[in-house]
Design goal:
Blueprint: E1 9-13, H1 17-23, H2 28-48, E2 53-60, H3 68-83, H4 85-91, E3 94-99, H5 107-119, E4 125-133, H6 135-148, H7 155-160, E5 172-175, E6 194-197, H8 207-218
Parallel strand pairs: 1-2, 1-5, 2-4, 3-4, 5-6
Helix pairs in contact: 1-2, 2-3, 3-4
The structure holds 3-methylbut-3-enyl trihydrogen diphosphate (2 copies) and magnesium ion.
One 3-methylbut-3-enyl trihydrogen diphosphate is lined by residues 14-19, 59, 63, 74, 177.
Length: 227
C-alpha cells in the first residue's frame, strides 16, 4: 500500500494565467479559462491522493486594480463555476467554503455562494475558495469580530474568527508562475507553512506537479522553532 499523503492541508496561489495566454498570443482572459480547467484537475487529484483540505487563491483584494474587462471576465467565470465546477465538487463530496470579503458582491451572487456552502456543509473534505480575499483584511475583520464579541484579543480567539476557521493551518503553500512572494495570502495561517515555488504557469499545472510539491514537502524538516 502506498504511504499516506503527509499533507493534510494544501494551499495554491494559482498564478501565471495571464503569461500563459500571452505566450500563445491570446488575451489574458483565455488564460483564466484554461486556469479554471487546471483548478478542476488539481483539486480532483488532491482528493484522490487523500488531502483533506485544499485552499485556492482565486481573486485577491488587490486584483480589482486590473482592467475592468479582465475583472469582468473573472467574475463571469466564477459565476459559471457556481453552477458547474463548484456544484460538481459539492456533489462529489467536497465541502465548499468561500473565504474573503463579500461586501463588494451583489445579493444574488452572495446568495449563490451561501447556497453552495449550505448544500455541501455535510461533506468531510474541504475546498476553500479564496475570492476577494486578502490576508490583512482577514486578520483585521477577525480582530474586529473578537472585540465585538467582547472577548479578549488572543491568538486563539483571532484564529477562531478567521475566514478559514476551523480549518487547520496549511502544511504546504504552492505558488505557480515563478514569483516568490505570498501576495497577501493566508498571512496569519502561513506562520509555519512550508512554501513551494514552481515556474510552471498555473494552466500547465498537472498531477505530476502536485506530486513534485508533495515530494518536496516530505523532505522538509518542520521544527516550529524547536531543535
Ligand atoms: C493568476 O494569474 C490569476 C489571478 C490573479 C486572478 P495572473 O492573472 O496573475 O497571471 P500572470 O501572473 O499575470 O501571468
Ligand atoms: C496573487 O497573484 C493572487 C491570485 C493568484 C489570486 P497576483 O498575480 O495578483 O500577485 P502579484 O501581483 O504578482 O503579487
Ligand atoms: Mg499574477
Amino acid at each position: 500500500m502506498a504511504t499516506p499523503c503527509p499533507v493534510r492541508h494544501i494551499a495554491f496561489i494559482m498564478d501565471g494565467n495571464g503569461r500563459w495566454a500571452k505566450k500563445r498570443g491570446m488575451p489574458r482572459e483565455y488564460g483564466h479559462r484554461e486556469g479554471a480547467k487546471a483548478f478542476q484537475r488539481v483539486v480532483e487529484y488532491c482528493g484522490e491522493i487523500g488531502i483533506a483540505y485544499v485552499t485556492v487563491y482565486a481573486f485577491s483584494t488587490e486584483n480589482w486594480k486590473r482592467p475592468e474587462h479582465e475583472v469582468k471576465a473573472i467574475m463571469q467565470l466564477f459565476t459559471e463555476y457556481m453552477s458547474e465546477a463548484f456544484r460538481v465538487f459539492a456533489e462529489k463530496g467536497l465541502r465548499i467554503r468561500f473565504i474573503g470579503n463579500r461586501d463588494r458582491f451583489d445579493a444574488d451572487f452572495v446568495a449563490e455562494m451561501e447556497k453552495l456552502e449550505r448544500d455541501s456543509a455535510g461533506n468531510e473534505k474541504v475546498l476553500n475558495v479564496a475570492f476577494n480575499y486578502g490576508g490583512r483584511e482577514e486578520i483585521l475583520q477577525a480582530a474586529c469580530r473578537v472585540q465585538k464579541q467582547g472577548k479578549e484579543l488572543t491568538e486563539e480567539n483571532i484564529s477562531a474568527a478567521l475566514y478559514t476557521a476551523p480549518c487547520p493551518e496549511p502544511d504546504l503553500i504552492v505558488r505557480t508562475g515563478g514569483e516568490m512572494r505570498i501576495s497577501n495570502f493566508l498571512l496569519w495561517q502561513s506562520a509555519y507553512a512550508e512554501l513551494y515555488f514552481t515556474d510552471t504557469l498555473w494552466p500547465d499545472m498537472r498531477e505530476k506537479d502536485v506530486d513534485a510539491a508533495v515530494a518536496a514537502f516530505r523532505k522538509r524538516n518542520r521544527r516550529y522553532g524547536g531543535v
